């Protein structure tokens, strides 16, 4: 699968987000956890990859099956859809 730079950027952003599970990345872009790890390794500096990997490893929110609070849909900020003056 050929990903354009904007897709790669979005995948990296989703991977850094604590509450975005790998399953959501798989559903959106067709990349499983191992493929996301490879993409991160290829596109981040080594130290950034190591920091991300430590952060994501074992984090319950990155794995839908480990979540204690059940399946959560897409998150929206509390003021995301409010009209601004």
Automatic annotation (TrEMBL):
InterPro entries for the chain: CHP03643
The cross-references to Pfam families, in alphabetical order and at most eight, read: DUF2805
Q: What is this protein called?
A: TIGR03643 family protein
């Amino acid at each position: 699968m050929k990903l354009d730079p904007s897709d790669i950027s979005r995948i990296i952003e989703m991977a850094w987000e604590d509450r975005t599970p790998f399953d959501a990345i798989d559903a959106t872009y067709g990349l499983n956890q191992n493929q996301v790890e490879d993409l991160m390794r290829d596109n981040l500096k080594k130290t950034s990859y190591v920091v991300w990997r430590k952060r994501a490893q074992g984090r319950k929110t990155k794995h839908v099956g480990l979540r204690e609070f059940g399946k959560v849909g897409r998150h929206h900020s509390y003021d995301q859809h409010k009209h601004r003056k």
